[in-house]
Amino acid sequence: MTFNSEIINKILDSIFPLPEQFGLIDDEEPIDFEIIQDKVFNTDPAANIFFGASKMAIVSPNIGDVAIKIPFNGSFEYDYSASKSEDDLVWNPFLYAPGSKEYDYCLAEYEKYKILKNHKLNCFVAETIFYKTLYNVNIFLQELVTSVAEIYEDDSLPLASDNSRKTAKEWYIEGKFNIDPEWIANCIDTYGKSKVENFLHYCTDIDEDILNDAHNHNYGYRKDNTPVILDYSNFLD
Predict the structure, then answer these.
(1) What is this structure's pTM?
(2) Total number of domains constituting the chain
(3) Pair 157, 194 in one domain
């Protein structure tokens, strides 16, 4: 991964300190979305911001081939024991992140990446590194990946071989995974059938979180067209 620390630090300095309940959902948008967005754009007009269920990602050609990933520190749920008016919302922090901090899904990805690297299976997931801590918030950088959802828009999905497609279809029917078989077929072509089987067994027997949130925004391809998962911490509510 290559990145420009000067630009990254300017972007981070423009938005920190974050609001105390950064990421709390209000009317289906994270609180302070527009404020954060304006601050980032004023610092780097070429930047794009993506808000997920548990984290924010910032990408820009000016920062390099990485995404800045920042965890949210809140969520909300309705108090169904009371009337369902806005005044009866019960605000709770994120829980159940599968890492060493119960709310930090970015940290969970970082820790999973290190474990997968020890198992020599890290090729299947986007490289994630710790960058710095600001105001008690851990910030991470992840290699830039184009999601399958973005690729479908351009109709440019890499094509796998017929043999790998046949194998992936058989595995899909057997229920070994819940991802687009074409992506799995590309994995077979890229990493080999045996290694893909080992990865799928790992995700079934050791760490189900990796594939449990595998929609087409969470996996895709690197610049060299190798298949990779970019969001592999799951989301548990």
Answers:
(1) 0.89
(2) 2
(3) yes
